[in-house]
Amino acid sequence: MIICKNSLKYFNTFGLDVNAFKIITIKNISELYYLWKENNQKLIPYIILGSGSNVLFLNNFKGTVIINRLKGILINETKNYWNLHVAAGENWHQLVKYTIKKNIFGLENLALIPGCVGSAPIQNIGAYGVSLKNFCKYVEILNFSNKKIIRLSYKKCNFKYRDSIFKNFYIRDYAIIALGITISKKWKPNINYKDLNHLNFNTVTPHEIFNYICKIRKNKIPNPKIYGNAGSFFKNPLIPNKLGFQILKKFPNLPYIVKNNNLLKFSAAKLIDECNLKGYMYGGAMIHSKHSLIIINKFKATSNDILNLAIKIYYCVGNKFGIWLEPEVRLIGTVGEIHPSIIFYHKDLKINI
């Protein structure tokens, strides 16, 4: 167990210089349970982080930040599948690289997604036509109240677009400690996504897809060590067909995808672009010039700078299109996570930031 200084600057990819009452890194389940028990008994708020790649600290945190560094990758091979058991503190991209090196192919589309393995099922991470749910066999969680480990099957995780049961049920008094991944040995390239469909299905290799996606992401997404960011700030909106086609009558040039559950998926980046917000700045925060879904810490931005810029995006898109974006980034207040609806909810309000 490692106790750090109070600054969270190096524990959130926005690079915000906010503090916590205490920051402790854990390396085994016993330490994790002990910390929960201590904080729970003393009524001290706590949150568990991996790399802080999908959080926005709105203020200093008046509790304990637990940094999950549970490590270990176990591989079990059957005739048709690779079965991986991966500890929650492993880095996701390093896991993808590890599988490629081991000639275990399938995760290449998910290359360079920031964060740790433990956060992957919370968001049901996805990119370039592939989501974690395509490979997840189970998620192991620790029930702090009785110290038991529960293995939830894929079906019980309730995976949806950037959503899972871990966002609304297994929140308090539980911690994700491991992820089970199953990968078929019969590899087929997944290149249906528009940025990949120029690749040749019959000749492309997993290594080529991996390298190509890394190149795309490095070009689109700024290095958080240079310009702090949390990747896409908002989700791509899913709109019921009836409302979606009404919007398209008014804005026929908006790109969209028809989903099989009577929904239309719109590009949040395109909606933001249509509001002429690319490159817009508020304080030290800026909408990235190459990808408008990304808010960057351009110059010593504060939490307030980033939040107000996100609110600007929310109302500009909402007032123009009638589409109210939902944050993908988790908002952390002084004592814990804050539901976005508490901040992003005045749909009839017109502001001028």
Mean pLDDT: 92
Uncertain parts: 347-353
Helix content: 10-25%
Structural class: alpha+beta
Gross morphology: globular
Based on DSSP secondary structure assignment, what is the total number of beta strands? Answer: 20
Widest β-sheet, arrangement of strands: 6-7-12-10-11
Q: What's the N-to-C terminus distance?
A: 44 Å
User: Which band does the percent of strand residues land in?
Assistant: 25-35%
Number of domains: 3
Number of helices: 8
CATH C-level class of the largest domain? Alpha Beta
Question: Secondary-structure element order, as H and E?
Answer: EEHEEEEEHHEEEEEHEHEEHEEEHEEH
- Named CATH topology of the largest domain: Uridine Diphospho-n-acetylenolpyruvylglucosamine Reductase, domain 3
Cα Rg:
21 Å
Biggest β-sheet description: 5 strands, antiparallel
Query: Which architecture of the largest domain would the CATH scheme give at its second level?
Result: 2-Layer Sandwich
Walk me through this protein's architecture:
The protein has three domains: 2-68, Uridine Diphospho-n-acetylenolpyruvylglucosamine Reductase, domain 2 (2-Layer Sandwich); 73-220, Uridine Diphospho-n-acetylenolpyruvylglucosamine Reductase, domain 3 (2-Layer Sandwich); 238-343, Uridine Diphospho-n-acetylenolpyruvylglucosamine Reductase, domain 1 (Alpha-Beta Complex). The termini are far apart. It is globular. The chain has helices at 29-41, 92-101, 120-123, 206-220, 241-250, 268-274, 303-321, 340-343, and strands at residues 2-4, 20-26, 46-49, 55-57, 61-68, 73-77, 81-87, 126-127, 130-131, 136-143, 148-153, 174-184, 238-240, 256-258, 263-266, 281-282, 285-287, 295-297, 330-332, 337-338. The strands form six sheets. It has a five-stranded antiparallel β-sheet, with no helix packed on it. A four-stranded mixed β-sheet has the order 1-2-5-3, covered by helices on one side. The chain has a three-stranded mixed β-sheet with strand order 4-19-20. By secondary structure, the chain is of the alpha+beta class. The longest helix is centred in the last third of the chain and has 19 residues, at 303-321. It contains eight helices and 20 strands. Helices cover 23% and strands 25% of the residues. Residues 347-353 have low confidence and may be disordered.
